[in-house]
Structures are given as structure tokens and as C-alpha cells.
Amino acid sequence: IQDNNNNISINDSVKSLVERSEEYWLRNNRNVSDSLISLAFIIIPQMEFPDSIVLAEAYHILGKNLIHKKEYQRGIDTLKKCNIIKQKVLFDHHKSISKTLNYIGIGYMANQNYDSAIYFCQKAKEPLIKNNISDTNLYLANLNIGIFYARQGKYNSAFNYFDTALIVLNKSGLINNDSIFVWRYYYNYALFTTFTGKLKEANKYYEFAETILIDKFGANDIRIAHINNNKGNNSYYAYEYSKAELYYKKALEVYSASAEDMEEDISRTYFNLSSVSSDKGDHYSSIDYCLLGLDHSTSNDLKLILNNNVAISYAAIKDDENANRYFNLALDLLDEE
Questions:
Q1: What would the 3-class secondary structure string for 215-237 be?
Q2: 219 near 255, Cβ under 8 Å?
Q3: What percent of the chain has pLDDT over 70?
């Protein structure tokens, strides 16, 4: 009896860790989510009779975290373990099975295997359509397939799936009840319209997404920085340099306030600001931004680009000595490749 009680206690501990890990994932705190699910998998091997439902959910969350850490194949394999368990013990839980199949598709997309990504997201739709279920999983499957097609440049197919995702979003009532799903639609549709060259229209959708995020998570959510960087890029390529500069500075402000390691993002944003300054003819500011970017960069690729930009700006103001110096630094980095 004591052993049985111990097993129940351990199951409860693992269940709590899994639930908390998912909670932090939904809050966009990936580091804490990863730590909690890793702790759960330290305990799981000690369990004589692990609860199958809890174990399946643990594999699902672990798989998501592995994909987030760019361990794509391990993440996919972990999610497939989750799916095997769900097919055995949760065969009539269509939403739960769809959720995991959908994320396997995301894993393949992250690994740039678009055919497999589309296949698994289509598989995610099947049990939902068969059982007349219109929910978040059906919405996400259609949205993801739209994203996959857009990334391949198949814009007509992408548009059809984005349109279907919006229909599901309205039909399920999610558009009124859960703003995070609406945010996800606006953000990805903004990316899609960017791909098709509609830069000003894309920024309108980014604005919608940003408003929802600020309302739900506050102005310093890291995704606000990503959105402003994207808006800055769109404005830059639309030759709206003053707007681009404002968006990049907003992104920089949020990146700098983050507790996460955002050094590369900060460096890249300084590079973006240097490009704006250079195109405006303000070569001194361009140099200053590049040097700030170099202070934060840990990537040789980015250092090469920044040094090259500094050299070009010095050349533009006829400072040949410094131009040659930074060209040589860029060449040295190129030789290291």
C-alpha cells in the first residue's frame, strides 16, 4: 500500500510540473517552461506505473521546448512518442491528438521540411472535420498550412488557408473570446502580406497584433520588439526612413529591457538603424550605430556585416584610414569562415 501511495504522490508531482510548464509556455516564458519539464523527466524514470495521460502531455510539452531550442529532430521524435500514447489511450480525444499532430507539423516546418509539415497539419485536421469539431486546433492547422505555403512562395494556396483559418476563428467564437488567437492570426497575416510585397498593409496588421499583445502582456513583451523590427523593415523598404527609425528604436528599447539574452537581436537592430542613417546620408550616426552593434554581437557573420558597414560609412566621409581599417577587419572575419 505504501508503494502505491508513493506512486500516486510522484504522479501528482509530475502532473503539477507538467501543468506549470504548460502555463509558463503560454505566458511566453520558455526558459521556465523548459526547466520545469526537464525536472519532470528526471522524476518520470523513477515511476513504476506512470499515468499515461500525464506522460503523453509531458512528451508534448518537452517536444515543443526541444523545437524551440532548435533541437528539431529530437523534438519531432518526442512529439511522435506523445502521439503513439495518445492514439492508444486517448483515441477518442480528437482535440488532444490534433494538437500534437499540429505541433509535429510545426517541428518539420522549423526544420524546413515543408512537405512533412503540411502532411502532419492536414492529419491534424482530419479527426476534427470528421467529428464536426471547429476549435483552436482546426484554426491553427489551417493557419500553419497557410504559413508553410507562404514560406514556399505559393501565395494563392497560402491565402486560401489563411482565409479558412479566419472562417474557423469566427465560427468557433475564438475571435471574441481569446485575443491571443486573434493576435496570432494578425501577426502571421502581416508576415504573409510582407511576403507578397504589400508592406504598408502588412504594418497595419502588425499594429493590430501589437495592440492585442500590449493589452494582454504589457508593453515589454519581447514579441513587441519583434513586431517593431518587422515594421521597421517594411517601412525601410518602403523608403519611409523616419518611421523605420522610430520602429527600430522601439524594438531596441524592449530588447534592452528584457531579462532574456537578446544580444544578437540588439546588435541586429543597431545594424538596421545604421542602414537607415546611411540611406539618409547621416554617415556619422551610421558609424555610431554599427559600433554599438559590435559591442553586442557574438556572431562572426553579424560582425562581418557591421565592420563592412562601418568601412563604407568612413569611405563616404573620405576617412580612408578608418575605412581601410574596418574593411580589413571584415576581411579577417571572412577568412575565418
A1: HHHCCCCHHHHHHHHHHHHHHHH
A2: no
A3: 96
Q: Between the CA atoms of 213, 219, 221 and 226, what dihedral angle is there, to the nearest 10 degrees?
A: 80
Kindly report, residue by residue over 198-254, the tens digit of the pLDDT: 999 999 999 999 999 999 889 999 999 999 999 999 999 999 999 999 999 999 999
Under 8 Å between Cβ of 94 and 79: no
Average pLDDT, the chain: 91
Q: What is the pTM of this model?
A: 0.79
Q: Which three cell numbers stand for residue 336?
A: 575565418
- In angstroms, the CA 76 to CA 153 distance is 25
Question: pLDDT tens across 257-283, in order?
Answer: 987 789 999 999 999 999 999 999 999
HSE (side-chain half, CA atoms, 13 Å) at 157: 11
Burial class (CB in 10 A: 0-12, 13-18, 19+), 204: middle
To 10 degrees, what angle do helices 155-172 and 136-151 make?
A: 170
Q: How far apart are CA 78 and CA 253, in angstroms?
A: 37
Tell me the three-class secondary structure of 260-290, residue by residue: CCCHHHHHHHHHHHHHHHHHCCCHHHHHHHH
Chain centroid, CA 67 distance in Å: 10
Exposure string for 135-149, b = 16+ CB within 10 A, e = fewer: bbbbbbbbbbbbbbb
* SS3 (DSSP) at 298: coil
What is the distance, to the nearest Å, from the Cα of residue 131 to the centroid of all Cα atoms in its chain?
31
Q: What is the pLDDT of residues 52-104, one digit of tens each?
A: 999 999 999 999 999 999 999 999 999 999 999 999 988 788 999 999 999 99
Residue 336 one-letter amino acid: E
Chain position carrying cell 518537452: 62
